[in-house]
Amino acid sequence: MDKSRQARYERTIGTTRFTEGRFSTWVSVVVNLFLSIAQAIVGVLANSQALIADSIHSLSDLLSDFVVLVANKHSQKAPDADHHYGHLRFETAASLALGVLLLAVAAGMLWAGINKLQDPSAIAPVHYAAVVAAAITLVAKEGLFRYLLRVGQRVKSSMLIANAWHTRSDAASSLVVLLGVGASVAGFPLADPIAALIVALMIGRMGWKFFYTSFSDLLDKAVDKETEIRIRNLLLSTPGVEGLHDLKTRKMGDMIWVEVDIEMDSRLTIAQGHDIAVRARERVMENEDVLEVMTHFDPVDVNDPERVQKKMQARHDAPDH
Q1: How crowded is the C-beta side of 188, counted as CA atoms within 13 Å?
Q2: Which residues, other chains included, contact 134 with Cβ-Cβ below 8 Å and sequence gap of 6+?
Q3: I need a surface site. Which of 95, 234, 261, 306 has the fewest CB within 10 A?
Q4: Separation between Cα atoms, residue 36 and residue 229, nearest integer Å
Q5: How far apart are CA 1 and CA 5, in angstroms?
Q6: CATH classification code of 225-317
């Protein structure tokens, strides 16, 4: 890949997003490592199955953070001889892996919780220390979620946002654990394993959401209708563009790849048509998170009465009118 193309690619996808993503993920690694160890120790000593389950959940966060770090490193690579479209789908693959990880954790926690409920007499009393540990965990996870989400939204990274919401599921589960542990200490021993089951269901729901969205993107699902309409209007509003057809979109990580046939006046020279196509491409890339716009232009008779009528009707029916 020549240097000019490499520079343009880096300008398009940005480099700050990868730097900030790496730093914020390492912050998450440190926090989750500390919480996982602390929860496991207190959970064992305080006889809290819910706290131990939350510790396993924190450990899964730690593993997911490393998945994000690996994807963050590879997705910033520019196109090469073997990957002509770049490596941005590493981010999609990472989100898919996070979804699978969450589903696996949820299944394991459900199994353990159901086994505990089948033999209530074997449930040991929970010590008050578990309540303190659950409260500290809740505060830490909620703070980490807000930090990661802010970074993900600022750099527009779905992978980082997915990881942030993974952390929010931890904060929500920690709240359930806190309530369950508190109820158990107050004299309701079944509350502890029940809390573990609720946490498992919450994790499973979030895992399915990540899995389904990422899997759809890997199958080249088109962007949402609103985004497609905006792209279409940007193309049609470019001077010299008489119409378009076969507009196709697909996700490349957080970016969008666009292919479209642009209709132009058949009397234009090839150079004039090329200039119009370049302006249309630049308009889209300046206003949307688009990595590339591949255009093909078709010659049309702009004075054809039927065509003029159709164009006027299309403008009248446009969503922004």
Answers
A1: 10
A2: 48, 50, 51, 54, 174, 177, 178, 181, 182
A3: 306
A4: 46
A5: 7
A6: 3.30.70.1350
Contact 181, 48 (CB under 8 A): yes
Dihedral over alpha carbons 314, 317, 318, 321 (to 10 degrees): 130
- Measured between alpha carbons, how far is 193 from 176 in angstroms, rounded to an integer? 11
In this structure, the number of other CB atoms found within 10 A of the CB of residue 272 comes to 13
22-49 exposure pattern, b = at least 16 Cβ within 10 A, e = fewer: eebbeebbebbeebbebbbebbeebbbb
pLDDT digits (tens, 9 = 90+) for 68-118: 666 666 666 666 666 656 556 677 777 788 888 888 888 887 887 787 777
> Of 212, 292, 302, whose CA–CA distance to 259 is shortest?
292
Q: 3-state class of 294 per DSSP? A: strand
Please identify every stretch of the chain with a pLDDT value under 50, giving residue numbers as ranges. 1-2, 6, 9, 12-13, 321
d(CA 43, CA 192): 11
Give the pTM: 0.61
Query: Cβ atoms within 10 A of the Cβ of 68, count?
Result: 27
Q: What residues have CB less than 8 Å from 314, skipping those under 6 apart?
A: 243
Residues listed for the chain: 321
User: Which CATH entry fits the domain spanning 3-218: 3.40.50.150, 3.20.20.150, 3.30.1330.90, 1.20.1510.10?
Assistant: 1.20.1510.10
By three-state DSSP, how is residue 272 classified?
helix
Domain locations along the chain: 3-218, 225-317
Query: CB–CB of 60/35 below 8 Å?
Result: no
